[in-house]
Design a protein that fits this description.
Elements lengths: L10 E2 L8 H4 L12 E8 L5 E7 L4 E6 L2 E6 L5 E7 L3 E6 L5 E6 L4 E6 L5 E6 L4 E7 L4 E6 L4 E6 L4 E7 L4 E6 L4 E6 L4 E6 L4 E7 L6 E7 L4 E6 L1 E8 L5 E9 L5 E3 L4 E6 L3 E7 L5 E8 L8 E3 L4 E6 L2 E3 L5 E3 L5 E7 L1
């Protein structure tokens, strides 16, 4: 993902905007039928850069991309393993369904690491494009899509061969993606504010959807019921785009500097974490209408998240930040932690 991902020196270079009116509106948003979400726990860990997080609900384990590799947390004991798998500016930690495998992307070395997520044993180091960032497993093609932020393309990885089998130019900086499971992969392009549609069988871009009013889209989720794409934009907007046609179905207000989008298909809730210290919760009905539910106060820099549907909890990495050189925000030593958001 974009800004937080390059915090290898524990520095965020993008502008930080305070929660302001968004937090003030917390008590006026439509209330969910269940108890509201809040930060219920803090898990301390070593300092350093961070990016994507994933949860293995069955194993009760959290995986986190760190600057020096993959970190894990035992969610039953909160035991942290700082260096579960070695890496070089890791960005993605992708669980491969119906297997014991996991794939991480290494931004600095232009490689993807395939490893056993239970033992940490590395199976292969796979060359990909420049600046590999987000990653997605597509069940239709059974390939992993690796989004290369510096070479503006996508590398397709065959897991059985443990090697790259194709490269797809996408005409801009790729961010998060979503698969419909039937041969279509939807991909946010950050610098052009578009969604690129890829045929995962022919390995070609078939169309592009412009997103009016969106700046720097990052997180992306897909609702299979309504066929809506939910794209999180940095300018406090989540765009709703019809996956089949690209039609603009409106937008919702979110926090500034969002870098993720998670959809809980059971409760039909959308979670969007933002850099300004808010986690936006939206309700998506069966007709594709969005209702604001809550703005959860989190912490500055908590802009990526993983959701565990078995416990209804989210995990967001963050730290305390202060003004540093050249107006950049720098993490305070000894303050890195994982925020746990759930219902009390």
């Amino acid at each position: 993902m974009t800004s937080i991902l390059r915090t290898w020196s524990t520095t965020i270079t993008s502008a930080i905007v305070t929660a302001g009116g968004l937090l003030a509106a917390q008590g006026t948003l439509a209330a969910d039928a269940a108890a509201p979400y809040s930060v219920v726990q803090h898990i301390k860990a070593q300092d350093g850069g961070y990016d994507y997080v994933s949860v293995d609900s069955t194993a009760h384990r959290l995986y986190m991309a760190r600057n020096d590799g993959v970190m894990t947390v035992d969610l039953q004991t909160n035991k942290v393993t700082p260096h579960f798998v070695a890496g070089n500016e890791v960005a993605a930690v992708l669980i491969i369904p119906d297997s014991s495998l996991m794939l991480s992307t290494n931004w600095a070395s232009n490689q993807a690491t395939l490893f056993d997520r239970h033992s940490g044993q590395i199976k292969a180091q796979i060359p990909v494009g420049k600046g590999p960032d987000a990653a997605l497993y597509d069940p239709a093609s059974k390939l992993v899509f690796v989004m290369n932020g510096e070479s503006n393309d996508v590398t397709l990885v065959d897991l059985t061969k443990a090697k790259a089998v194709a490269t797809i130019p996408v005409g801009g900086k790729p961010e998060a993606a979503a698969s419909d499971g039937h041969g279509r992969v939807y991909l946010n392009i950050e610098d052009t504010a578009e969604i690129v549609v890829i045929d995962s069988n022919t390995h070609k871009v078939v169309t592009r959807y412009a997103m009016k009013g969106c700046e720097e889209p990052t997180g992306l989720a897909l609702d299979a019921v309504t066929g809506l794409l939910i794209s999180a934009c940095h300018n406090s907007v989540a765009k709703l785009i019809e996956a089949r046609t690209g039609a603009d179905k409106g937008s919702a207000t979110i926090g500034e500097g969002a870098d993720g989008a998670i959809f809980d298909s059971v409760k039909r809730l959308v979670f969007i974490p933002s850099n300004n210290g808010t986690l936006t919760v939206l309700k998506l009905d069966a007709n594709g209408k969005v209702q604001p539910v809550q703005q959860v106060r989190t912490h500055e820099g908590a802009r990526t998240a993983a959701f565990d549907p078995s416990t209804d909890r989210l995990y967001l990495p963050s730290a305390n930040f202060v003004d540093g050189k050249d107006g950049e925000r720098e993490a305070v030593a000894g303050t890195f932690e994982v925020l746990v958001v759930g219902r009390k």
